[in-house]
Every structure is written in C-alpha cells, then in structure tokens.
Write a structure and sequence with these properties.
Pathway: Amino-acid biosynthesis; L-methionine biosynthesis via de novo pathway; L-methionine from L-homocysteine (MetE route): step 1/1. It is built from 27 helices and 24 strands. Strand 22, helix 24 and strand 23 form a beta-alpha-beta unit. The radius of gyration is 27 Å and the shape is globular. The model has no long low-confidence stretch (mean pLDDT 97). It binds glutamine (GLN) and zinc ion.
Length: 765
C-alpha cells in the first residue's frame, strides 16, 4: 500500500508567495529574491510531506502563478503577441502572459482567465491557433524534479494530461478543433517523459479531470490513443492517471481500459463510482482512493474511510491500493496549527477540522491503520478521530432545533410572491414613480484606504465602535448627497461598513466561524479566506437594517437595501458536509428572508439580493443541473418572497452567461435583474431577448474593472443597442458591478455621465 499526494498548496502558510510576487511586480525586489522564496517554499513542502510519511510526493505542483500557464510555457504554446518580449527572462515572459505587459513602449494584453472546474481557483486559458505548434520549451518540470532529487527525494512529477490540456484551452480562430491538435502535442509529451525518466523518475501523475466529465466520442478516442502511445513508448513507467471533482460514471469502462499503472478516484465527490470501478477493474490496475477531502476543511472520518479501503482490499488486495486526498490540496488552506484565535474559531470547532498539513497526516495514518503499522500511534489517532467526529455529531453548537423545524415547515407559498410580476409591475410603478430608464448602481462605492483603515483601527481597538460608526455614517451621507446631486433615481448607501459581501453577513449569522489564516489561492497572488459554515444558520438580529434605515432617513429619494443571496453565501464558504448543501442553502435563505422583512418594515422599498455565484454552482455534469437549479432558485425565492407586491426586489449577477439557464433566471422572478454587459457590448442580453424575458433588466453600461471613464454617448449607444432587443419600459441604466475597487474621481465622473445618458435617452422619446 502507498500513500500519495496529488499536490500541495504553494502560497505558503503565511502567504509568502503572494508577498514575494507582489513585491517583485512592484519593482521592490529582484527576480533572484522571488525565485529564492519560491524554492524555499518548494523545499519546505517536500520535506514536510516526506517527514509525514508520504510515499508518492508530487513535484511540479508548485507554480508562481498558475499550473496551466506553466504547462503552456512548458509546451511553447506562447501566443505570438508576446514575441516582442523576447525570452531573456522566462519568468517575465510568464508574468506578461498572466498579467499583460505595459512597459518600455510595449502594450500586450494578458491571456484570458477562467474558473478551474467548479472550484474558486482560476487558471489561464491556453490559446490555440490553426497552425499551432508545440515544443518542449520551459524545463520547469525537469528542474523541479532535479531540485527535489538533489534534496534527497525522488518525486512523482505532476503534469496535466494532454487531453485535458487541450480541452482546457480555447480555439482563437475558426477552422479547426483543438482536440485534433493531439497528434502535434503527443510527441512533446513523449519528449518530456523521456527527460524525466532519464533523470530517474519512476512515477508520473497525469491529471485528466475531464475523464470524469461529459465527453465526446472524439475526446474518448484521444484518451485511448494517448495513453496507449505512452505505454508503448515507456512500458516500465508508472503512470498515475488522476481524475477528480466528479465520478467516472459513463466513462468507467474507458478509464479502466487505459493501460496505466494506477487510476485515481475522487471518492469524496463521487463515492458511488467505486462499485462501478470495482466491478470491472482489470488485473494489475492499482486504485488511488481519494478519501481525504481536498476541497473542504473537515477532519476525515477514519472509520468510514477504513471501510472503503477494506472493501477495495478484499477485491484487489492491499498492494494495489494507494491512499490519497480526493484532489490536489491546492484547494485547502495550509495549516490548521496556525489557527489560534479562540474568539472566531473555538477549540471545539477547530477539533473537527483539518487543513492541508493535517490532511497529509490523515492519509498516512489511514495507511498505518489499514496495514496495522505503527500500531500504538495509529490506534491513538483513530481514537482521537472517533472522539472528535462523535463530538461533532452531537454538539449543541451544530444543532438548532428551531432552524430545523423552520426548514421542515417551508411551503410552496413561502417561495412565491403574493401576485405574479404582471400585477406587481403596476403596483410598483405607482408606488415608486420612477422615470423611464431609471438609474441605479450595484451597491458598493469606493472602499478607499481610509475606509479600510477605520475597520482596521476598530479591530485593533484604537477607535471605539461608536466612533467607527460615526465615520461610516459620514461617508454614507456624503455618498447619498453625491447621488442626489447628479440626479440618480434609486440610491444606495455605499456598503462602507462591509469588508466583503459574504464575510460581512457570515460574521453576523449564527453557524459561521472564521479562520485567521485559512487562505486559499484564487488566482495568481490573490487568495480568499472563505468562512466556515459549521452549524444550522440563523440570524439573531438585523444585519443591514440600521445602515439602510440611516441612509433612507437622509433623503426623500428611494434608497435600495443591499443583501447577499443565499446561493452566493453558500458558494463562497466552506460548507458543512454532514447535511445536503441544499439544506444549508435553505437555512441561509430563511435568514436573508428575515432581513428582507425587517428592511421592508423599516421603510426600504427596493431591496437587492445579489446572486453573482448562481452560475458557478452549476454541477460539472449536465444531467445534475436540474436538481441544483431547482433548489438554488427556490432558495433565492424563499429569501425574496416575504414582501408585499409594492416592494421591488432586485438581483444582480456578474460574469455570467445566461443562454442555458435563462428559464431558471426567469424563475427567480426578481422584479429587476442587473447584469454585467458592457464588456460583451450587450451581447449577454440576447439570451433575455430571445427568451422574451418579462421582468426588468439593467444591462451594465460601463466596465467597473477599469478606471477609464466612459462617455455619455458611448452609454447612450449601448442602451440604444439594448433597446433594439428589449422593450425600453423594461430597461434600467447602471454600471456592470459594484464600485468598491474604484477611486472617487473616476466614479463621480462616470456616474455623472451615466445619469446624463439616461436623461438623453428619455429626451429622445
Ligand atoms: N453589491 C455588491 C457590490 O456592489 C455586488 C458585488 C458583486 O456582484 N460581486 O459590491
Ligand atoms: Zn457584480
């Protein structure tokens, strides 16, 4: 039996890599210093895994920015626009591909970035062209193998497999299919393997997550072709083929027929696949059992994992078993040992958790238990594990009967507004008296360094709560006055009191805990620190009412209340794994519903419930979409449906395509939806137009990601374009998203132009 790891987090327990990269980009340190920090991190991670007792330790899992971009550089898949940069420094070329380059008279855009399957990690999308060539260009994979070898560790290099690499990319011109590039790509993979083997590699891990997704016949044929060729060329190489984030399902036969040494299964995400695999596993194929959750922060249930291991051992024997985390630990925070703040993460909750470092140990202990090695130590670990998990099951912290009863008592009516939109529309028109092309914003106004410093001071205790609130109130008042002065129709309070759109709510909800250092890489040097939902969620008291009511008290104009929706709160947290996600989402929905009711009672007549993460929650396999969308849309409706017909509910979504979920967006039945649209030149609206979407829509008219101030005429032109496909009575005028990352000068200028654009549009009637 072997222990194995698929990948270790590279950011460092104290985000050393983030700091090193950002310092280098800012010109504060040399490249040598950056590369030195990177090497230190790699060696630390290697040694830590070796000392823990991992047999198959990964290399090439490290990355300065992103592992897919690393591979593009390895394969020489460098778009031509970077030619001007030269190849004197591969590191600078690499960062230019990741982040764009604007220096020395050059102006080259970055490569596109997109989400890595259903995680919150983002990768740099490979660009493929008709005449695409590949070469073994960067030697990172060899260098990192040799570095580890010099350090006394023969690693298992990790590389994204050729089929998944092609499928992860994008055709940048018409006239070819990227999967057809496989014949040009395979020889370069063979070259890479040759070099690794020549240097002493025995195992290589090929990540092929697409093998667990929906595949075309062509994709399937490519898998068979590639792995047979590799087998022919290297009969003695031990190939570990890794799938994760889903189950093999209809690809089981294909997967077990590939001539590889070991197949890795994500048994956390899809435990059901084990039976299918065991039924047809061929003689000689080892199975890597991904039993330790690489995507969440809960302690493993040793008893359950040992049952799985035992079941497999009976079928194929212990020697063909590899014990692993479910996927790369890239998606876990680094080290629970650093969590020492009892106030936000109590010892009771902490004992139920495990981060990457602890998960590595879990893998090792599972092997000891299954193999009866190191008996005393393993038995103690098992006892401790059983106690902790039993304590979690029965803890009073987790069980809130009132919440459970409330969830059980939900009726269809709770998820329905009193009247259909066709009736609400007229009631709201009378109540709100808005002009044609009403103007609004998405919620946040600039979170200046000053605003953030107030929160930091409050945390440190250098200002009092009431002083802090005075400062935030003043900022809110100025923002209200600014919006009045330019003639905005529906105002917002500016969200100055919020650190983050999920954390702010999590901190006030029961059932949430927070880590101090539980950072996970999101993209490049950007990390996120998701809250931990450990128990039944409830809302002890108002979370936003005082701020919205205060803002409304300052003006006769309508002030919009601003909330984050249940699906987005769920999606951007670590979620408890002892009840279905849909149940947790429904609990959050009820908490938001209470807030919506309280806002209405406090005189707030328009309430926005943001759901930017609805789309990213979609399951990876299409046939599971229906189930997810049903509960996700229902959760939104539960949160939104307690109000009277006269209260207008908005929702907001960004970075979304809507074509294939437009019916579900319509089922959310928000009176108004605002979407990101400007960067697609209103193309995202087509889905709404084709569907004849009945409710109101605000297609974003300017890109908030850039400091550029759009002209009035530009925005008029975009709205005219929108009005060609959506009746103008249904249209709102607003930016793409919140303004928190912008500065005040451009914000003021852009919104002034935007309101002027709306006035022009009205005057044209
Ligand atoms: N109301 C939030 C804001 O304006 C919405 C942010 C988002 O959609 N990501 O900041
Ligand atoms: Zn947004």
């Amino acid at each position: 039996m072997f222990t194995n790891n698929l990948g270790y987090p590279r950011i460092g327990s104290n985000r050393e890599l983030k700091k090193a990269c950002e310092n280098y980009w800012a010109g504060n340190t040399t490249q040598q210093e950056l590369l030195h920090t990177a090497q230190q991190l790699r060696l630390q991670n290697l040694n830590l895994q070796k000392e823990a007792g991992i047999d198959l330790i990964p290399s090439n899992d490290f990355s300065l920015y992103d592992q897919v971009l690393d591979l593009s550089l390895t394969l020489g898949a460098i778009p031509k626009r970077y030619n001007a940069l030269g190849t004197d420094s591969l590191t600078d070329l690499y960062f230019a591909m990741a982040r764009g380059y604007q220096q020395n008279g050059l102006d080259v855009t970055a490569m596109e970035m997109t989400k890595w399957f259903d995680t919150n990690y983002h990768y740099i999308v490979p660009e493929f062209y008709k005449d695409q060539e590949f070469t073994f260009f960067s030697k990172k994979i060899t260098n990192e193998f040799l570095e580890a070898k010099a350090n006394g560790i023969i690693t298992k290099p990790v590389i994204i497999g050729p089929v998944s690499y092609l499928l992860l990319g994008k055709e940048k011109e018409a006239g070819f299919e990227r999967i057809d590039l496989i014949n040009k790509l395979l020889p370069v993979y063979l070259e890479i393997i040759t070099e690794l083997v020549a240097n002493g590699a025995q195992w290589i891990q090929f990540d092929e997550p697409f093998l667990a997704l929906d595949l075309t016949d062509k994709d399937k044929a490519a898998f068979t072709h590639v792995y047979n060729e590799i087998k022919n060329a290297f009969p003695n190489l031990k190939v570990l083929l890794a799938t994760y984030f889903e189950g093999l399902r209809d690809n089981t036969q294909l997967a077990v027929s590939l001539p590889v040494c070991a197949l890795h299964l994500d048994l956390v995400r899809c435990p059901e696949q084990l039976d299918d695999v065991l039924a047809i596993v061929p003689e000689g194929l080892s199975l890597s059992l991904g039993v330790v959750d690489g995507r969440n922060i809960w302690k493993n249930d040793f008893t359950a994992s040992l049952k799985i291991i035992d079941r497999v051992a009976r079928k194929i024997g212990k020697s063909r078993i590899i014990i692993s985390p479910s996927c790369s630990l890239l998606h876990s925070p680094c080290d629970l040992g650093l969590e020492t703040n009892e106030a936000t993460l109590s010892a009771e909750i902490k004992q139920w958790m495990a981060f990457a470092r602890q998960k590595i140990n879990e893998v090792v202990v599972l092997k000891q238990l299954a193999n009866s090695d190191n008996i005393t130590n393993a038995a103690n670990s098992l006892k401790e594990n059983i106690t902790a998990n039993a304590a979690r099951k029965t803890s009073a912290l987790i069980h809130n009967t009132a919440v459970k009863n409330r969830v059980a008592a939900i009726t269809e009516d709770d998820a329905k507004r009193n009247s259909p939109y066709s009736i609400r529309k007229n009631i709201q028109a009378l109540a709100l008296q808005l002009p044609l092309y009403p103007t609004t914003t998405i919620g946040s106004f600039p979170q200046t360094a000053e605003v953030r410093s107030w929160r930091a001071q409050l945390k440190k205790g250098s200002i009092t709560q009431s002083h802090y609130e005075e400062l935030v109130k003043k900022e809110t008042e100025e923002t209200i006055r600014f919006q009045e002065s330019i003639g905005m129709d529906v105002l917002v309070h500016g969200e100055f009191e919020r650190n983050d759109m999920v954390e702010y709510f999590g901190e006030q909800l029961q059932g949430f805990a927070f880590t101090k250092n539980g950072w996970v890489q999101s993209y490049g040097s950007r990390c996120v620190k998701p809250p931990v939902i450990y128990g039944n969620v409830s809302r002890p008291k108002g979370m936003t009412v005082q701020w919205s009511a205060y803002a409304q008290s300052l003006t006769n104009k309508i002030v919009k209340g601003m909330l984050t929706g249940p699906v987005t709160i769920l999606q951007w947290s670590f979620v408890r794994n002892d009840q279905p996600r849909s149940t947790t989402c429904t609990e959050i929905a009820l908490a938001i519903r209470d807030e919506v009711s309280d806002l209405e009672t406090a005189g707030i007549r328009v309430i926005q419930i943001d759901e930017p993460a609805i789309r990213e929650g979609l399951p990876l396999r299409k046939n599971q979409w229906r189930e997810y969308l049903d509960w996700a849309v229902k959760a939104f409706r539960i949160s939104a449906s307690s109000v009277s017909d006269a209260t207008q509910i908005h929702t907001h979504m960004c970075y979304s395509e809507f074509n294939d979920i437009i019916q579900d967006i319509a089922n959310m039945d928000a009176d108004v939806i605002t979407i990101e649209c400007s960067r697609s030149q209103m193309e995202l609206l087509d889905a709404f137009a084709d569907f004849k979407y009945p409710n109101q829509i605000g297609p974003g008219v300017y890109d908030i990601h850039s400091p550029r101030v759009p002209s009035k005429n530009e925005m008029v032109a975009l709205m005219d374009k929108a009005a060609l496909v959506i009746p103008q009575e249904q249209l709102w005028v607003n930016p793409d998203c919140g303004l928190k990352t912008r500065h005040w000068p451009e914000t003021k200028e852009a919104l002034t132009q935007m309101v002027a654009a709306a006035k022009d549009l009205r005057a044209k009637q």
